[in-house]
Every structure is written in structure tokens, then in C-alpha cells.
Specification:
This protein has 100 residues and is mainly α. The protein is built from 3 helices and 2 strands.
Amino acid sequence: MKSWKNLSPPIRLAIVTLVVFGLVFPFVMTGIGEVAFPSQSSGSQVYYDGRSVGSELIAQNFSEAVFFQPKNGSASGADPDITMAYAMSQVPRIHNATGI
């Protein structure tokens, strides 16, 4: 029984700390963020036809036709697993955008 008396305060402190810093604090900070910064707090979503299609902060700004694909994952020759047919299907798009 004496060991329970010694263990009870730290266990209660741990539970209270978990509740305060794991639940209360995040909800309070989220609420403050929603009130103080309503447009930034939801993540700068880009909407098309009423549905979210991306974020303004992802990718990069480009204004010239040579920047035809922001953050491309493959440039035909860089992808070792691309088929010849798929590489050839990209030729008109790349030609129109870059003039190559």
C-alpha cells in the first residue's frame, strides 16, 4: 500500500501532462491559428470546380513556355524504366514547349 502512495502522484502528473500537452494545447493553438490566420491555417489550397486539386506552396512558379512541367520526375532519359513508346509520346509536348 505504501508503494501506491509513492507512485500515485507521478502517475497522476503524467496523465494530466499528457492530457494538457497532448490534447488541450494543440486544440488551443489550432483555434488561435484559425482565428488569427484564417487563410493560411488551412494550407493554401487550390480549388478547381469546387474540389481541392493542390497547394499554392508546392511546386514552383514559372512564367515561360520552357518551364512546361514544374518539378518533373522524369526527363525521358533520366528514367531507366521508361518504354520507348512512352518516350516518343512525350516528344510533341516537349517540342511544343521548348522548341527542341
